[in-house]
Structure formats: C-alpha cells, structure tokens
C-alpha cells in the first residue's frame, strides 16, 4: 500500500506552492481541499468509487482539480486527447466502456453527441455528499488510461498504475536530482504522459508546477530567462521556439534554470549547440505511454559526445536489445516497475510483455558504454510536433473509403514539425482531394491527416505481400 | 524485479567517486570490479548463492567490498556488532543458523572460538571461480539481517529486504533532496542500519561516501568546515562533539554542508541552538532496525518551532497512534514499504505487524499539525551514545548469576552518553562488585553493563507482579 499522494503531500508540506496558473497560485493544502470537494461533488452526481470515467478539457487548474477528485475516488481516468476526431474519441470511449465523460464546457462540441457527459460546471456547482476517501492506494491500482496506437492500427488503452507512475517519478529524481526550489513549467497536454507525469512528480517531490494552457513562447522565454522555472519537458519543435525566442531577445537562461527534457523524437545537433550557447542544459529522453514517461535519459554532459543517443536507462529500468551480438541493432526491450501491466478493452487479453520485457517495436542498439541509440521508431511511427502518428491507423481510415483500394502512409521531414505524414493511395474509383480531406477530417485528428496524397498504381510490397513502408518514399 | 544496485550504479555512472577512505578513493566502476572479484572468491571458497552468512569487521573499505561481494551472490548478510560479548555473538550466530562468519583478521578474537570463520585475507588472496551474478533482485529478497532486542530480552534477527532498503532511501531523497555534489560522511558503524543505509543511498543516489573507521572529531570538523562533505548521520553525543570542535576552532560549517541527521534519541535544545549559530541545518529523525532507518524526520525549518518532535513521516510511510483521541499518547504504529517483513530464527513465526502496522512499543503522540513526538521509548529502551540497550536483556543476564534473585535495569541521564544503564538487584547470596563486573563482561557488550549496581530488598512490582521499571529510580 502506498499513501494517497494528494493527502500525503498536503500533510507533509501543506503551505508550499503547488500550482501556478497566470496570476493565481495554490498550495498543496488548498489543492487537497478543492480536490476533496470535487470528490464529494462527483459522488453526489453518481460517480462511484473505482468507476472508470473519461476526462476532457483544456490544460487549466480546474482539469487538475477534477483529476485529483477522481483520484480520491480511486477512479480509472481515461485521458481523452482534445485533438482527436469525434470518430476517434467514440472508439476510445466505447473501447474503455466508459459510461460518462467529465468535460470542460468549452470542449463539449469535441465529443460525439450521443455520449453521456457531465460538465465541469455542473460538477463544480453541485452540492457534495460525504464520501470515504482512501488514505492509501494499492500499488497495482490503475490511475490513468492513455490510448496509443501500434502495429495494428487500432489504438490500445494502456493502464498506468500507482506503481508505474511512482517508480517513474522516483527513477527520474535519482537521475536529475531534487531541491525545494524546483519549479516545473508544464506546457504539454495533461492528457499525454509527458504532461501528466509532471503532476505526479509535483505530488511526490513537493514542487511547484507552473501550468500553461498552451505553449506561449514569450512567457516561456521570460520564465526561463528570469529563473521563474527550473525544469521543462518539451518536444524538439518547442525547444527550437524557445531557443529562437531567447536569441531574438538576446537573453540567456537564468542560472536557476536546471534542465530541459526533450522527448518524442530526436533533437537536431544544431539545437543542442544553440542551447549550450544560451546556458540551457538539455537531457534528451526516450519514453512512451507504456512506460509512464521516461525510460532512458541522456545527461547534459554527454549531449554532444553521444549525439543521437537517448542515454542510459533510469535507475530502476532495464533496457536490452533483441539481437545476437552486443552493439548490433535489434528491437528495444524494456523492463522495470514503470512498465504497464497491460491494456483494457479489445486488447485486454494481449500481454504487453514477454517474460517481463516490453517489446517496444522500436529498433535500436547499445554502444560499448551502454548508451541507447534509437534508429527506427516502432511501426514506422511518425512523430509530428511530439504527437505520435501510426501509419497503420491512418491507412485503416483511408482504406475505409469506398474509392480507395490500398493505402500506404509514411513520414517526411518537416522544418516546423520534425515530420509530417503523407499518403500513397491506389484507387478503385475517382475521388477529389477535397473529398478526401473532408472524409479524413471526420475520422482523424488534424495532425494525423496526410499533408499530401499521391495516387499510384501499386504499393511496394514484399514477398509475403506485406506493405514495405520504407520504400514508399521512393515513389516520390 | 529491481536491478542489482551495484551493477546498475556502475553502469549508469561508472566514473563518479563512490567511496573515499583516508587518501584512497574508488569510483563506482572500481567498486563493481572489486566486489565482483570478491563474489568469485567467495564462491571458490564454498559460499553458495543465497546462503546466509555473517560479517564482522571494522568500518573499512574492505568490509564494504566484502558485503557487496555477498550481495552479488544474493547472500543474506547477518551484520554482527563488534561491541558485543562472545556470548551475545554466539547467540546471534546460532539463532541465525549461520555456518560461517566472514571476519576481518583484526576481529577474529572477538568471535567465540568454536565458530567457523573465513578471514577477509583468506578470501582476498584466493583465486576466484566463474559465477553467475544476478542482474536483478526480487523486491522481497533479504539483503541484511540485524539483531535488535525488545520486551522479551532475547535479540531478534530483523530481515531488511531489497524493497525495505530501497523505499527507505527513496523516501529520504523526497524529503532532503539530491544533487550530484552530495557527499555523505559515514562515521557510524556499518553493522547498524544508520551506517549501512548510507551505503544503500550511495548506490541508489550515485553519491560519494566518505568513510571513517571511527569517528574522528578533528577530521569531521575539518570536512564540515571545508565543505568536503554535505550530509552526515549522527547521534546526539557525536553532534555535540562536532559542535564543540567547530566552536573551539572558531569555525563554521561550509555553505556546502547541507544537513546533519541525528537519530537514536532526542537532541537537546541547546545543541540545536549552537548548530544554528554554526550554520548547521539539523533534521532530527526517528527510525529503527525494523524500518530500515528513518521513518520520520523533522525539517530544519521546524527544528526550534517543534522542539522535541521527530517530525512527520517520510513520503511513503504512515504513522498512527494507538489512542482513542487525536493528540493523545499511545503506542506508535508504523506502516509502509520500509517495514520489515519479519524475523528469522526463534522469532521467525512472530509477525512484526498487525494488519500491516508495526507495533513499535514506543509511546508518542501527533500534535494538531501531525508532528510526531516520542515520549517514551519501547520497553524502557535506554539509548547510550546511539546504541540501544534493552533493560530486559541485561536483567536476563544478571538473573542468570547464581547469587542474584531479581534484577531491574533502567537508564539515568549522562552528560556524555545521553543515558547509561544502572541495575537494582535482590541477592540470594553475597557477591562482590568485581565479580559482578567480570561476569557481565563475559556476557554483555561493554556499553550494556550497568554503571552502578544497587543492592535492594525488593523491586517495585505492580499487582500482577510485573516489574515497574519506571519506579526503579525512586529507590535511589
């Protein structure tokens, strides 16, 4: 059993700053009080202890309070991605067998019409009922469920337990250290593990989170230059904008700023060099939804010496390569207390691990010193501005259209987003690009829609007729 | 499964300083190599994988290398206290069913003659054999066994597992923070949890340990004043000597020195005030063998405001008082992943917990803010210079003498040691003080031997004839 993080943190450091948003600030004790109130309000509206619910809303304190209210009730929280299409959201809500979605008013229209909803205002304005709050949580209790795709093209709901989140936060602290003055800037979506893990760390570490609703270059540059924040998780495209902002204003990072943690794909060497010039330590990371955030991190010291590497595993994690020889490329396998125990819904029976090892589908190697290099992301994964796009998922949608016989999707490099998806299609009957776009908009999040469609006669396939996505680009 | 701490640390930060002793220093990689060699040598001499062995030796690097060699073999290490009498050591060795004691040559004479021994030199000089080293350890694997007494007077062998040690180190880091520059001064015995836990932290945190064979006031004062160390665990008597040493030389602690962690009994207010004057942050702690080190710690900020308190539990720990009302005194109960799963030997069947709660036998209360105050140590525990003395154990020994009918032991205040034991005896036949002293020396560690013997007609007993130790002092 582990203590309820929210109650324990409020007990240990009640008066410390926990959250800042714009001009408002909350201590851990205040957050406890508000979240306990939410729990009572949720209970009054029929939300049961340990019920699985979904959450949807912009990154604002009220979303956090709502999440913490759910955590007091030990609910399993399905974290909905605000960028998804109605069809995608419907799939997740059905797969998770969620009866009700707790939704910020501003996001009601994002949801399919037929879904049962409770708006944040309804909850916040209701009168609570007395409810028993667990003071401790079992290590295998599911806190969050986040959907991620894979080789099949069908998103899988990944369980992230008390033990997963905790060991992730603890492994990380052994790597980057901790002081009472630490303040994390959170400008990543809270529905992604990159954002949510910042909240978990705050509860465990007792440090402040400075929350942004959206990334704001001017504010971030100021916060970093003035030492208002000490840590920030980013994706490469955001890092570049911050570097650019500092350079533009001829500012440097404050010496109080400790580390920038980029995830979701490689950081170009020139960014690292510019960061170095601006006094920003960069620790590149490698992680995924199934590992509740970072599994490996490259220290700033090694940033240039081991360019292209994502570093070594964090303390409680193990990484091995499924290859015959040391130093050879193979599938990256991960083991540790941060690895998900499994999926929900249609993939509930599918084990994510074999003999305790998570098979990532990513290809990589370990150099002679044990540094990990990721050479190819799983399932030809496309990473666009930190969001994962699985070609199989986009192909499935395209092939669902009557006019399309075959589809192949791959990523191409993009100045702004790192990568963007493009599609190659074999037609059954004619279709206009506008029609295609409209069809995709109904079915897919915008960031997943191919930026270009190329009509071809046939797709490159191997002997067993399997699509060879890596050869798609040769058709250009 | 958790990684073998020694291998994982050497993999992650091979070149960082791990240990300093006098003018010698070792990196984590060097410690790994030496300890792997020890494991191979131990195996060559017949030590089996997972065998239970005992260790005895002064606090020197070679003892640490020997321990780590045993840890590679996943041996259960019974940590023998060098201050014990032969009779006490024999009891522990028999109770633990240890077949062989690994002993530093200098300590051979401390052991009973009939015990099977392997000296450190024999091991260090032998040729190793190839042996399989586990790369990960189960969470419930016993790392150490430390003997502690209690109400019965018979010492109990307490298991301390991978999970116990780990969660203790992790809880502590969430409380006091961590930076790469941290260096712990270790001048406490490695056979006690207070010393051994410094080694565990070093492996998990990746920080350096500066080891002293014995406490040395001059060196410690210099290390603290020059910022050569950042953390130190102490008992009150040692803290006072350091304060005195600094005052004598008109020195202050370096700003690099972060925190002094006193355990094993209360720190007098005047020490805290002097520490404050000298720039030393003091965080008083409360812990025991059964909780693998600290279970609660008072922050330096609260040191004077909450004088006499041992603070709040560490993050993963819970403390409650077995009393009817909030704020009332009662037995202190502890729960958390740091609590021992149980004992070995004659107490193997006795569970240390009830419904997951460790019943400490200590009496205390929580104030309205949740700060713990220990008002009476378990079983009238006497704490003398940081060593625990259980009256029942000493009484048992005294009553084992033909001339003694009854015995009662309690502690009195002492300028140097905090407390020292004294004894009240009812005689069957005459006996000289010299005879008594000689008899005790054979049976008891020196620090446990009563400083005074008072012959009385009868001992204070309650209605059910139970000795009332608290009334003993009234006989003076």
UniProtKB/TrEMBL annotation, chains A, B:
<dbReference type="GO" id="GO:0006631">
    <property type="term" value="P:fatty acid metabolic process"/>
</dbReference>
<comment type="similarity">
    <text>Belongs to the ATP-dependent AMP-binding enzyme family. MenE subfamily.</text>
</comment>
<feature type="domain" description="AMP-binding enzyme C-terminal">
    <location>
        <begin position="393"/>
        <end position="466"/>
    </location>
</feature>
<dbReference type="GO" id="GO:0005524">
    <property type="term" value="F:ATP binding"/>
</dbReference>
<dbReference type="InterPro" id="IPR000873">
    <property type="entry name" value="AMP-dep_synth/lig_dom"/>
</dbReference>
<dbReference type="InterPro" id="IPR045851">
    <property type="entry name" value="AMP-bd_C_sf"/>
</dbReference>
<keyword id="KW-0474">Menaquinone biosynthesis</keyword>
<protein>
    <recommendedName>
        <fullName>2-succinylbenzoate--CoA ligase</fullName>
        <ecNumber>6.2.1.26</ecNumber>
    </recommendedName>
</protein>
<dbReference type="InterPro" id="IPR042099">
    <property type="entry name" value="ANL_N_sf"/>
</dbReference>
<comment type="function">
    <text>Converts 2-succinylbenzoate (OSB) to 2-succinylbenzoyl-CoA (OSB-CoA).</text>
</comment>
<feature type="coiled-coil region">
    <location>
        <begin position="70"/>
        <end position="97"/>
    </location>
</feature>
<dbReference type="Pfam" id="PF13193">
    <property type="entry name" value="AMP-binding_C"/>
</dbReference>
<dbReference type="InterPro" id="IPR025110">
    <property type="entry name" value="AMP-bd_C"/>
</dbReference>
<keyword id="KW-0436">Ligase</keyword>
<feature type="domain" description="AMP-dependent synthetase/ligase">
    <location>
        <begin position="9"/>
        <end position="343"/>
    </location>
</feature>
<keyword id="KW-0547">Nucleotide-binding</keyword>
<dbReference type="InterPro" id="IPR010192">
    <property type="entry name" value="MenE"/>
</dbReference>
<dbReference type="GO" id="GO:0009234">
    <property type="term" value="P:menaquinone biosynthetic process"/>
</dbReference>
<keyword id="KW-0175">Coiled coil</keyword>
<dbReference type="Pfam" id="PF00501">
    <property type="entry name" value="AMP-binding"/>
</dbReference>
<keyword id="KW-0067">ATP-binding</keyword>
<dbReference type="GO" id="GO:0008756">
    <property type="term" value="F:o-succinylbenzoate-CoA ligase activity"/>
</dbReference>
<comment type="pathway">
    <text>Quinol/quinone metabolism; menaquinone biosynthesis.</text>
</comment>
<dbReference type="InterPro" id="IPR020845">
    <property type="entry name" value="AMP-binding_CS"/>
</dbReference>
<dbReference type="GO" id="GO:0031956">
    <property type="term" value="F:medium-chain fatty acid-CoA ligase activity"/>
</dbReference>
<comment type="pathway">
    <text>Quinol/quinone metabolism; 1,4-dihydroxy-2-naphthoate biosynthesis; 1,4-dihydroxy-2-naphthoate from chorismate: step 5/7.</text>
</comment>
């Amino acid at each position: 059993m582990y203590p309820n993080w929210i109650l324990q943190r409020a007990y240990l450091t009640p008066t410390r700053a926990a959250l800042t948003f714009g001009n408002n600030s909350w201590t851990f004790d205040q957050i406890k009080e508000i979240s306990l109130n939410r729990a009572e309000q949720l209970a009054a509206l029929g939300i049961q202890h340990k019920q699985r619910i979904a959450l949807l809303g912009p990154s604002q304190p009220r979303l956090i309070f709502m999440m913490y209210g759910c955590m007091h009730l030990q609910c399993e929280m399905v974290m909905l991605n605000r960028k998804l299409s109605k069809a995608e959201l419907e799939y997740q809500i059905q797969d998770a067998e969620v009866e009700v979605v707790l939704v910020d008013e501003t996001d009601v229209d994002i949801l399919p019409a037929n879904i049962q909803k409770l708006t944040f205002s309804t909850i916040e304005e209701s009168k609570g009922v007395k409810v028993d709050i667990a003071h401790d949580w079992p290590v295998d209790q599911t806190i969050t469920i986040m959907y991620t795709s894979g080789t099949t093209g069908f998103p899988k709901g990944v369980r992230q337990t008390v033990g997963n989140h905790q060991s992730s936060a603890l492994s990380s602290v052994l790597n980057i250290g901790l002081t009472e003055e630490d303040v994390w800037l959170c400008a990543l979506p809270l529905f992604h593990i990159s954002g949510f893990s910042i909240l978990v760390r705050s509860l465990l570490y007792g440090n402040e989170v400075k929350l942004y609703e959206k990334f704001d270059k001017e504010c971030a540059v100021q916060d970093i230059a003035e030492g208002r924040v000490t840590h920030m998780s980013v994706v490469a495209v955001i890092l570049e904008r911050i570097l650019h902002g500092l350079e533009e204003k001829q500012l440097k990072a404050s010496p109080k700023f400790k580390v920038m943690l980029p995830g979701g794909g490689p950081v170009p060497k020139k960014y690292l060099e510019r960061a170095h010039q601006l006094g920003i330590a960069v620790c590149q990371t490698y992680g995924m939804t199934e590992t509740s955030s970072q599994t490996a991190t490259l220290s700033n010291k090694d940033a240039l010496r081991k360019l292209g590497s994502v570093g070594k595993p964090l303390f409680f994690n193990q990484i091995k390569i499924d290859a015959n020889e040391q130093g050879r490329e193979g599938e990256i396998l991960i083991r540790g207390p941060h690895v998900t125990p499994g999926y929900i819904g249609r993939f509930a029976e599918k084990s994510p691990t074999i003999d305790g090892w998570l098979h990532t589908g990513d290809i990589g190697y370990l150099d002679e010193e044990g540094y990990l290099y990721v050479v190819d992301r799983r399932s030809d994964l496309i990473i666009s501005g930190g969001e994962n796009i699985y070609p199989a998922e986009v192909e499935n949608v395209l092939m669902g259209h009557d006019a399309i016989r075959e589809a192949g999707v791959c990523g191409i490099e993009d100045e702004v987003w790192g990568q963007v998806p493009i599609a190659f299609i074999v037609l059954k009957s004619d279709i206009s690009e506008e029609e295609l776009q409209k069809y995709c908009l109904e079915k897919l999040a915008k960031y997943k829609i191919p930026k270009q469609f190329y009509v071809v006669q046939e797709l490159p396939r191997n002997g067993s007729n399997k699509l060879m996505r890596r050869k798609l680009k040769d058709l250009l």
